[in-house]
From TrEMBL:
This is Pyrroline-5-carboxylate reductase. One of its GO terms (cellular component) is cytoplasm. It comes from Erythrobacter litoralis. Its EC number is 1.5.1.2. It is an enzyme of class 1 (oxidoreductase).
């Protein structure tokens, strides 16, 4: 990995990544944070309040963890932190490698990174794209993000908004599903807290089983639905007119389209 990584903006997402790296046993001294709004950082992680403080401490890579809409306004302030010895990594949803490179033209390499909040527990997919890394450093970067779950290069950057919708935004859709399932059970008579607890543990177990199994999710679903039994009745409701698939197609399209819109906004 880059030996010293400066996280510029460390809110929900970069904070989850930092927690994930420390949980994975990375040395806290390798990380520093630049975020004027943060009340503190984990033990051993330096917190800088100004770019000047951060510049003095030094780093080999920066990870942009603020909002995409802030890129244009903040880039000039942070350009001195992204000189020819530094690689710029970006979490900014929708923002392309070309836009990151245009904002930080002096940096030696640029990496687009799409994790999700499960980074905190080392169970996030992390999608990567890059410009300017050598072969050996590509592997070091992959290993850095692999510590947060499962990191993979996406060679075709035109797919990045779609993988963002699936893997980065995906947890929000799963949480909506859990809420809806628990809410439905509560509407049908179950205690609301019990319904939420059962739905959450069920989704955790079902997802873990799918991840550990050689069987495709569709095949696992068939194994749950005993012939002539209860589950098929419910699956038929979800499958009617491809209702669930159609809903998720619209959901992913809207999410990915917003990525393109954010990129257009930046120009
Ligand atoms: N929340 C998520 O699950 C995911 C978020 N992302 C990306 O991560 C980025 C951050 O999103 P969140 O963490 O959700 O937002 P957030 O609002 O929780 O974090 C943003 C952080 O940036 C800091 N910040 C604002 N202005 C700053 C400045 N001038 N200098 C330094 N720091 C500054 C804020 O104090 C805050 O801590 C976005 O670009 C988003 O697209 C990517 C994948 C998933
Ligand atoms: O909502 C967002 O824009 C970010 C990108 C993926 C997840 N959160």
């Amino acid at each position: 990995m880059a030996s010293r990584l400066l996280l510029i903006g460390c809110g929900n997402m970069a904070g989850a990544m930092l927690a994930g790296w420390l949980r994975a046993g990375e040395d806290a001294g390798r990380f520093a944070v630049l975020d004027p709004a943060l009340s503190g950082t984990p033990d051993g992680v330096r917190l800088h309040r100004t770019p000047e403080q951060a510049a003095e401490a030094g780093h080999d890579a920066v990870l942009l963890g603020f909002k995409p809409q802030q890129l244009r306004a903040l880039a000039p302030t942070f350009q001195p932190l992204a000189g020819p010895q530094v690689a710029v990594h970006s979490l900014l949803g929708g923002i392309t490698l070309a836009q990151i490179a245009a904002a930080f033209p002096d940096a030696r390499a640029h990496v687009r990174v799409m994790p999700n909040l499960a980074s905190r527990i080392g169970r996030s997919p992390v999608i990567l794209a890059e410009r300017g890394l050598g072969e050996a450093e590509r592997e070091q970067v992959r290993l850095l993000y692999d510590a947060l779950g499962f990191a993979v290069w996406q060679a075709d950057e035109t797919r990045f908004d779609l993988v963002t919708a699936l893997a980065g935004s995906g947890p929000a859709f799963v949480y909506r599903f859990i809420d809806a399932l628990a809410g439905a059970a509560a509407d049908l008579g179950l205690d609301a807290d019990e319904a939420t607890r059962l739905a959450t543990v069920m989704v955790d177990g079902a997802a873990s089983l799918a991840a550990a199994s050689d069987l495709a999710p569709g095949e696992l679903a068939e194994r749950v639905a005993s012939p002539g039994g209860m589950t098929r009745e419910g699956m038929d409701v979800l499958d009617q007119g491809d209702a669930l698939r159609r809903l998720l197609t619209v959901t992913l399209r809207a999410t990915a389209d917003k990525g393109a819109a954010l990129a257009r906004e930046i120009g």
